[in-house]
Amino acid sequence: MSPRFPLVFGAVLCAFFVAAAEPATKQEEPQDKEVRTTHSITLNGQKLDYQATAGTLVLRGEDNKPTASVFFVAYTKTGITDATSRPVTFAFSGGPGSSAVWLHMGCLGPRRINVGDVSGNPAPPYEVVDNQYTMLDRTDLVFIDPVSTGFSRAAPGVDANKFHGVQQDIHSVGGFIRSYLTKFRRWNSPKFLICESYGTARGSLLGEYLQGTLGIYLNGIGLVSPALNFQTLLFSPGNDVPYVVFLPGYTATAWYHKRLGAGLQQGGLEKAVAESREFAQNDYARALFEGSSLPALEEKQIAGRLAQLTGLESDWILRKNLRIDTSAFIERLLKKDRLIVGHYDSRFTMPHGEEPVDGLQSDPSWAAVLGPFTAGFNAYVRGELKFESDLRYEVLNRRLKWDWTPAQNSFLSVSDSLRQALLSNRELRVFVATGYYDLATPILSTEWTINHLGLEPDMRKRIGLGYYEGGHMFYLHIPSLKRLKQDLDGLLDTSLKR
After folding, report:
1. Which residues constitute the domain of residue 340?
2. Which of helix, strand or coil describes residue 410?
3. Measured by CB atoms within 10 angstroms of the end CB, which terminus of the chain is less buried, N or C?
4. Are residues 224 and 252 both part of a single domain?
C-alpha cells in the first residue's frame, strides 16, 4: 500500500514497582504455544483433510533469551509422511503494521470472509465460508504476523521498536521462518513466499536474506499488489515518475465509472488501459521531462489528451501543471456527483463534501473491509481455531514508527534485492499480480519496476505478470480470485517442474 495512505497499516511495556525492601517481581518468560484443530474442505469434488495450528513461536537472541513472541496460523494437509513431497508457503501482508489477515482470510486460506466485493453490504454479522480457491490443495500454508501486529508482541523488557524497521523486520520474520522450519522439520520441503503490498518489499528483501545469510533457498515468490520501488509511488517535488505510472490506473477507474469518451469507453478496459500506457510512457513522460520549457500549445494538447484518458477537465489539468496526484484524482473524478472513489480500490465510492480527503478515514474501499475482516477473524480464531488471547488482535497497527534507514534521504527500493535473489538461485521463479483499479500500487508502477531490474533475458523469463479486475485486494473480486489461484498454481508447477 502507498506510504501516502499508510498501508500501513506495540507491545505495552509494563514496569512493576514494589517497595524497596521487597524483591522485584520476575516477569514470566514467553513460551511457544500451539492449539491444533482438525478440519476438512471439499475442493473440486475431492475431500481434503487438514490440521490448523494457531499459536505463537518465541524468537530468541544468541544468548537464548526471548526477544519476541510471533503469532502464526498454519494449515497442513493430513496424512503426509514425506515432507519433501509437500511444499510449504509462508505468507504475510504489508503495512508496515499489517497482520496477515488479508491474504489469510481473503485469498489463500481454506476459509475466507465473505465481504461481497463492491456490491457487498459491510454490516455484521459477517460470514466465514469455505474458500474454493485456497492454495491448500497444493501447498501447506503458514501465515505470519510480524511483531506488533496480530497477537505478536515483543518479549517483556524488550523494546518493540527494535523490530520496527526495514532491516529489523527482515531479521525477525526471517528468524521466524528459520525457527518454523526447524521446529516442524520442514527444512527439505519446497519453500515459497506469497506476500502483499509492503509485504512484497519484505518478501524481496527476505529472498536475498534467506538465501544469502541463512542458506534457505526458495522455489518461488508470489508478489501481490507490489510496492517494490517507492519512487514510483510517492508524489513529491521533483519526482515526476508517479504522475506517469499512475495514469493507466486513472484511465481504468474512469472507464469503470463510465467517465471516458465513447471511443475509449466502448473499446473495453484493456484497450483503454493500453492507450493510456502508450501515451504515459511516451508523449506524457517527455512533456513532464521538458518541464517549464514545454511550449504552451503542446502543453494544451497534452492536457487535452489527459482529459480524454482521465475523464477530468483539461482546464483543471492545465492548472495542475499537467500533474495529477492520487488525492486530487480521487476527489475530482466524481465531484459533480459529490462522491469520491477508493484509493485501494477505485471501484468503491462514498459520499463526500468539500473537506479534503483524509487518508484511510476517507477511503470507501478501506471502510468496506476493515469491519468484516476484524470481526470475522476475531470470531474465527477463537471459535473454529480455539485460540484464546486477551490481547487485541492488531489487524492494522498504525501507531508504529518505522525505521526507513536504508532509504535515508532517498526512496526505498528493493529492486537490487529481488535481482540478487534471482541471480543467486537460478531455479527461483517469481509471479507478480496487480489490479487495474489499484491506486496505491498501480499497474504501470509494477511494470516500470520489473522493467528496471536490469535482468538478462533468460532471467526475465523467470518472472510472470498477471492483471486482475480489482484493486489492491483484487482477490475480493471472485473471478479475479479464481484467476489468481490458477496463476499461483502455475507458479508452483513451473517452480517444481511439473
Report:
1. 242-361
2. coil
3. C
4. no
CA pair distance 69, 205, nearest whole angstrom = 22
**Structural domain count, the chain:** 2
For residue 31, report the phi and psi dihedrals to the nearest 5 degrees.
-125, 155
Helix (H, G, I), strand (E, B) or coil at 162: helix
- The answer to whether 394 and 99 are in contact (CB under 8 A) is yes
Among 424, 369, 486, CA closest to 213: 424
Per DSSP, 442 falls in state -
Q: Which amino acid is at 209?
A: Y
142 φ/ψ angles, rounded to the nearest 5 degrees: -130, 115
Give yes or no: residues 385 and 329 share one domain: no
**Is residue 245 within 8 Å of 280, Cβ to Cβ?**
yes
What would the pLDDT profile of 311-360 be if each residue is shown by its tens digit? 999 999 999 999 999 999 999 999 999 999 999 999 999 998 666 666 66
Q: What does pTM read for this prediction?
A: 0.92
Residue 401: count other Cβ atoms within 10 Å of its Cβ.
9
How many helices (H) and strands (E) the chain has is answered by 15, 14
Contact 273, 252 (CB under 8 A): yes
**Is the CB of residue 313 less than 8 Å from the CB of residue 307?**
yes
